[in-house]
Amino acid sequence: MARRAIDPSDGLIADIVGPWALEKHERLRKYIDAYRGARAMFLPPRGSGGAAFVDLFSGPGRSQRDDNGQFIDGSPLVAYRAALQSRTRFSDLHFNDIDADNVDALRQRIESLGGAAHFYNESAEKAVERVAYALDPSGLHFAFLDPYNLENLPFSIIQRLAKLPRMDMLIHVSVFDLQRNLRRYLDDGRVLDAFMPGWRDAVDPNRVDQAVRTDLLHYWLGLIRRLGTSPAEGIELVSATGGQRLYWLVFVSANELGRKLWGDISNVHVQGRLF
């Protein structure tokens, strides 16, 4: 179970995060603001189809930093407030977490802000089917995928979302998990089989670890391109204060405008890029 705290501002649970969470949230906030004009084209009175926000690993909506104890908004509240401030709200919000306590806390927080959302309490792999079914395929939608590890992000989730013609995705890939567990994942194979099907025929596990990790990422990005959607240029590499590599932040869109907007606002705090 993830570590928890109680947020004194509302008496509800909060998860514990590192300070680098602020970087993810700043990118999320800036992108939601940057594509407000495109979003408005799918909302009344200008258009139809809707513009939904999807978070399949939502958490309780608030977090406590483990370095200074500060309480901050989690991704659901960051997205909700950013859309509100942009004056172009999302037509629908879809939040899922496998932990029922997280779902309950988030529901209360969204309602306290005057918002409404669809809430799910199951694995992301199951929830994505219900969410995708509920979304209008003619709309412009945005999914934030931020799991703790690779095991919780089977490729089937990305595959299902990519079936929607206008689905942008901001995906957190834990390089820390891959670095720490690389040899175990290679030997056992089941996590990588789900995360990037077919990797065994494309990656040589006998290469040095750094090369294997790079080969795996390239292969995974290739799988995404085969779906008809494309990762933006410049995969963000975010590291901890001490330089420890933590995660890749990958923006995926079938639309050139989405990738351009991401390029304009990414690298909030320049740490590194893979390509």
CATH homolog superfamily: Vaccinia Virus protein VP39
- In the CATH hierarchy, the third-tier topology is known as Rossmann fold
Total of domains? 1
CATH architecture: 3-Layer(aba) Sandwich
The CATH class label is Alpha Beta
User: How many beta-strand runs?
Assistant: 12
Unreliable stretches (pLDDT < 50, length at least 5) are 268-275
Report on this structure.
The chain contains 10 helices and 12 strands. It is of the alpha/beta class. The chain has a single domain (4-173, 231-265), classed as Vaccinia Virus protein VP39 (Rossmann fold, 3-Layer(aba) Sandwich), CATH 3.40.50.150. The strands form 2 sheets. Strands 3, 6, 7, 8, 9, 10, 11 and 12 form an 8-stranded mixed β-sheet that branches. Helix 5 runs parallel beside helix 6 (155-162). The chain is globular. Residues 268-275 have low confidence and may be disordered.
